[in-house]
Amino acid sequence: MAAFQRRRSAAPAGLELAGAARRRPHAGLLRRERRKLRQAREELLRQLAGLMVEMYRRSEYRDELLAQVCTQVIGVDDRIAEIDGVLDSRRRPACTCGARLISGARFCPSCGRGLATSPALPQHPRPREG
Asked: Which CATH architecture has domain 22-90?
């Protein structure tokens, strides 16, 4: 077998697709989709503005046309929010000071505050005896 070839599993093709459907898309794909959705949203807003101007010129408002474009904008907004939620869940956790944490760290690299994974340290050191 060549070094760079992937092994194929013995599972039927239908089971492979079911497992692949549960995986989250790559972050780069989500960012590209989000960028295209933002562009589409801007285009829909321009279309909505043009529609409003034409309706104003003619003094004839058609609520169903406005509602249709607004529904599309809201749908795009919802998908962008979903993508943002997935991308935010993949980011490293942040300290209360706002600094990003390094994986496996016990203390914040910015403020030095102990993290929840480390044992609690006493607030005041005990005086030395002797």
From this structure: Orthogonal Bundle (1.10)
